[in-house]
């Protein structure tokens, strides 16, 4: 059981059906036949991370490739300059990051966050992971 927030019972199969077996990060199809630790295997991503107070409920999860989920880690896209300013305020309180945070504009932060979370970038990263996985399996 998760300690914070609510949770409900759901299965990866059910979320996969709901999401049309498309990855919520790279937008490519997810095949059910792959099994962990294959980076192409199906996995459940928490849109608002549990650490950030997200719930383990259907409305907060989506189907992703395991590799895309791993690539995302706990990084959440910045959508507005207000969100960027909030994140920057956090960075400014960390002495080693203060100068870096002060050099960024909110617009830059939103732009680089959007680039980080682009489907094309996730597709490229997943292709790399699959390549490495196949190489190591041999
Ligand atoms: Zn993916």
UniProtKB/TrEMBL annotation:
Keyword annotations: Endonuclease, Hydrolase, Nuclease
Gene Ontology molecular functions: endonuclease activity; nucleic acid binding; zinc ion binding
InterPro entries: HNH, HNH_nuc
Hydrolase recorded as keyword: yes
Highest taxon listed in the record's lineage: Bacteria
Domain HNH nuclease: 10-70
Name the record gives this protein: HNH endonuclease
Taxonomic lineage: Bacteria, Bacillati, Actinomycetota, Actinomycetes, Kitasatosporales
